[in-house]
Amino acid sequence: MASKHPHATMKDKFGDKAKLVAELEKLSKDDLWVARTNKDKGLAHVSNAKLLRLHATFSEVKEKFGTRDKLIASILDLSKRAKDEGYKASLSKFPVPRLYDLYKSTAKRNGAATKNEAKAAAPKPAKPAPKKAAASEGKTKKAPAKKA
Length: 148
Known about the structure:
By secondary structure, this protein is mostly helical. Helix content is 56%, strand content 0%. The protein contains 6 helices and no strands. 11% of the residues are buried.
């Protein structure tokens, strides 16, 4: 089934664009937002598709982590660079959507590495002995003899 147009999705979920912008502003007042918007235009001039993506990302991050700092800390833990202050400083400059994408890709990479390590560490199960062929049991069928 084809997905809805962003305008229709926005109308279904929020009613109008002003309500969607208000929801995003609630999320942006918390510790999630890096103020990089144009002060003259604001969020009202951003496309519906981008606003919907931002709302979905901010909602997920708010639910899983709560703040940007906790998201950055989890990225550092996953990448095993918790003590690297320079990397932490560079991550703190990133906006939340970019941080969340980095978190997901790092988690996926570490998850794949963990699965491969688990496969290598786990002993392989012994294969069951193959069934004996019917010929070895003495119940072989002979082909009918050709008549000359």
